[in-house]
Amino acid sequence: MHTIRKLDNGIRVIMHEIPYLKSATLGIITNSGSFYENSINNGVSHFIEHMLFKGTKKRNSREIAEAMDDIGGQINAFTSKEHTCFYGKVIDEHLPIAIDVLSDMITNSNFDENEIQKEKGVIIEEINMYKDFPEDLVFEMLTEQTYREISLAYPILGTTDTVKSFDKDILYSYFKKRYTPDQMVISIVGSFSEDETIKLLNETFGNFNNYGKSDEERVSYDFEPANSINGLSKDIEQFNLALGFQGPSTYSDDIFPMMIVNNIIGGTISSRLFQEIREEKGLVYTIESSLSSYNGAGMFSIYAGLTEENATTVAELIKSGIDKLKDELITGSELEKAKEQLKGSYILSLEGTFNKMYELGKNLLHDKPIETPEMVLHHINNIKLTDIEKVVYKYLDWNQMNLSYVGPVKNTEVFDESIRNIFY
Predict the structure, then answer these.
(1) 338: CATH
(2) Structural domain range at position 45
(3) Active site residues
(4) Domain limit, last residue, from 154, 172, 205
(5) Domain count within the chain
(6) pTM listed for this prediction
(7) Could you say which of 147, 171, 205 is where a domain stops?
(8) Rounded to 5 degrees, what angle do the CA atoms 115, 116, 118 make?
(9) pLDDT of 213 higher than 70
(10) Tens digit of pLDDT for each residue in 267-312?
(11) Which residue from 80, 400, 398, 386 is spatially nearest to 254, judged by alpha carbons?
(12) CA–CA distance, 108 with 96 (Å, rounded to integer)
């Protein structure tokens, strides 16, 4: 079972001991991501993530890396729409070193102006790299369409223009506002002593931004759903098609039934769309569905990688497949099979300490109930056909579906009209 403690400055700590392991994973999760940004500072959260690896008052960037490499540990970070997470995984006897390194990065970073200027080039190259990956680009376009009225639409990396505008004052000002004890959680899973660990955390994090609180207004998830087509003609071999519907938020009662729907439509290689469009008809190389959920919103998407010649045929098959699901729903046997798939993937995801650390930390950060695996399995086992019917009609609404594509389209106006005639 987990326990929750609080440091002297108010940072909450959630700990889950697994004594039979010989390792521990430590994560510092902050409410800092593109959701909290605006059109002027878009990308600042991700930039700060990079900068915290660039040197502190007692370590340069190389020494940060070597401190963990020398003990065989792992250190990394990522920024998402809603969070920035710094984490380290070490054998249990070296947890104090991981705490020391990560706390040093977060509490003592230099934000050196020379390093900031160098990192601008690195991140701009990262932005350019993603533009060269059409699958990533088409999802970025779809996300912007789906959430265009709110900040979830902003790209995590920012834009070339915003990144070029950053300086130490912009970065450090945002850092002080978002990295406050009320907006941060420390999560630890694995083999460790709770009392000793809390003592170390108080020594290293307990005076950071002491009792600081974020003074920013709460950002809204409210927006008016719409439908649109957004295409980009690009001289590449493969055509990339993505559809996005509204979806449930992470903590909605609809999330598990919609996960079932996702598995049935395209979330597995035995799913309806994969079997019909790829296996039976051979019209695509890739077709899959996925569910992206956030604290107050969500998106259900379908992606296909194919040739342009097959695009309208595949679009018609996707449309008929969704309509058939809405008309006939699913059988009891399909529901039970999908439940077992969902339970299996959930349990397997918890086998590693990282996923457990991140799940516990996010829930605490959002003040949500911390559910045990048994409670989650209970939710899944209790999904009924009526729950499936509810989410199918609630979310799979063609009037609230956005579509994006990237590929070698000769005439986007003609193609857009053909797509519009299929779906709208």
Answers:
(1) 3.30.830.10
(2) 2-205
(3) 49
(4) 205
(5) 2
(6) 0.94
(7) 205
(8) 65
(9) no
(10) 999 999 999 999 999 999 999 999 999 999 999 999 999 999 999 9
(11) 386
(12) 17
